[in-house]
Every structure is written in structure tokens, then in C-alpha cells.
């Protein structure tokens, strides 16, 4: 999803331009939350990012379009896209769209719901939603006949109830991911193993099986997210301070990761988007 909205979700910064709707109690192990954001008009191009929780991003109308621009390709989206995995140097452009409706899933439940392997997003982290909708009978065009956000949430929940008869517990995975999110990327694989009391092979299998990422990749994503938040909230950023405060070894390490995820240096990105 656009990184500006993802950061609002992580920081729980909600108001009349962006808010969260809790899923029905029996579906909380599948849906992390529903979100509505009014599109920010300052920029037409926004960085897309993911924090390990796959998300479906719905445009207001079925015929609405957007362009997802990666380093070497452009994908044209109609109606909705879905993203997951590690997203690198990928942006979205959309015009004449005033609102996004986002459904954010717990990772293990998402892959089970759409009967896909956790490596599905390894080579293409953003795909048109219709590619996945066909896999479990989600009627995209019928969804867009819903006129209100409430109707849309009911439509999605009813579909999930029809497909998933007995939601599985996600407690173990949820506890692990919450622990890592609170660390905001400042943890390392070594300290994670030490603090949780598990061995590396078990942790690696656990992550690949449930979210399709290596523990190192997950930590790296959250470290970048926190660095991006600090950078974009600064008037005149000090790159060394940003790097040190978010667990990077040095400014060069921060610079390398930032270019990996955005395609730009921190200062170039800051000049464009601030």
C-alpha cells in the first residue's frame, strides 16, 4: 500500500481523512483491519511498501485505474491491487481518485484464504487483485456495486465466511510479529533468537512458512520503515542521526537500504516528497 498510509496505520494516526474499522470478532484472526484514506493530493506518485501483512487496495470504482511503476516494468491496475512480500523501488500513480479502501490481512491467513504459496510475491510484489480473486471466487464486479464502506466490509466478511469455515488461531505468529514490530527494526536476528529462545533454523522455517520472508528481510523492512518515518518528519534531516537511531551500522548502510527500497538517495527522496 502507499507508504504514507502504512505509516499512519503503524502509528495509529487516524482522523477524518483516514480511519480504521475493526473486523467482526470471529474474523480477527484473518483480517487485521479495514482502512479508509482520502488520497493526499500533494503528490501523484507514492512509494508502495509492505510490512509483512498483505493488503488489498481498492480504488473507488471498478473502472478506476492506477499505474504501478517498478524499476523495469509498469503494471496497469483496474479496480484494485494486492501487495505482499518485500516491495522494492515500486511506486503507484493514480489520477482523479479521492479515496482508497484497504483490507489488511494477517499473513498466514491471507495465503490460506487465497490458496497460494507464501512465495507468491517473491518475484512480483504488487499484482492486480483480479489475479487472486479468481482463485477463490471473489466477485470483484459485484463488490463494486456496494455503495458505502459498510456495505463493502460486509461483502468481504461474508465472502471470507463462505470460503473459510473454521478460522485458525494466529496467536503464535501474531505474538512474534508484534514483538518484532515494537523493536522497529533495531533488533537483529541474533538478539531475536536470544530473546525468544528459539534456534535460527526453526525461526527461518517459521517465517518462510507463514509470511514468505526470511527473518532478516522482515527486520530490514521494519528498520527502513522507521528510518523513512523519521526522515519524512524532519525539516532538514541529519542522515547520521537517522541511521544511528534506527539501528543501521552507519550512514552508508542506511543509504544502501534506502536506495534499495526507493531507488533514490535519502536527500533526493526528501526533496521530492517533502
UniProtKB/TrEMBL annotation:
Keywords: DNA-binding, Transcription, Transcription regulation
KW DNA-binding (keyword) present: yes
InterPro entries found in the cross-reference section: AraC_XylS_family_regulators, DUF6597, Homeodomain-like_sf, HTH_AraC
Gene Ontology molecular function: DNA-binding transcription factor activity; sequence-specific DNA binding
Record carries keyword Transcription: yes
Domain of life: Bacteria
Matches recorded under SUPFAM superfamilies: Homeodomain-like
Name used for this protein in its record: AraC-type DNA-binding protein
Organism: Sphingobacterium psychroaquaticum
